[in-house]
Amino acid sequence: MFLSGVRVMETEEVVDGCFSLLLEGKNIAVNAYPGQFIHMRIADNLLPFLRRPFSLAETFPEEGLFRIIFRLIGAGTKILSRVRRGDVLDCLGPLGTGFKPCEDLRLSILVGGGIGVAPLLFLAKKLQEKGNKVIMYYGASQSADLIPVHQFLPPGVEINLATEDGSSGFPGFVTDLFQTHLQNGLLPEEIFACGPRLMLQKLAEVHRNKKIPMQFSLEEMMACGIGACLGCSVEMQRGENETVFKRVCRDGPVFKSCEVVW
After folding, report:
1. Sign for the pseudo-dihedral over CA of 219, 221, 223, 228
2. What CA dihedral angle connects 175, 180, 186 and 187, to 10 degrees?
3. How does pLDDT run across 155-190, given as a tens digit for each residue?
């Protein structure tokens, strides 16, 4: 974990209300791995008071660069969307526990919902570098909300899109699209997902029925980002009849699907 000033190298509104920032920060770019996040101070004053967490969507270690992708959802992200090339932002990271794929994977399935697709872009790149076949399922409410994931994915990743209103790709939830492919013979060795809790809960049912290993990156509101405030704690299974609370920022954000109490 490093506390440093990172320089804005590139800013782009990839779709309406969704931005990509390419940032220069050698320590983060070199040490980060998929599923981890940064905790960024948005402004030099007290508004907004708390830092904001952002998943790492891509890194370029040799150049000392990394990327975050975020959607406008409040005052903090509105301020961040206005930064310009050369601006310096106070950044803490990389933080959290990321994805831990099995070493001998041949086929990896990534399932993303909304802005939750961001950490999966980073993971797809790393998995493909190891020679894995990567298939991504990505869904949103409507086509206007879909991030152009092909812009950030390496060549060769198969992309399957779904929209709830049917305006692009499969008409319905991304979990329904994935379930259809399972019924048609898809045989994933491990599944990695990030998105709304309901989406993850539906995927967890697949694990219970088919026993496919799954790792989920949870999206929870964070305050401190380092495990001190306990504000992002979620209930986890420990043993057959016992549960415990774990901190998403410190113990996660990535957990096995069978750990989470839904």
Report:
1. negative
2. 50
3. 899 999 999 999 999 999 999 999 999 999 998 889
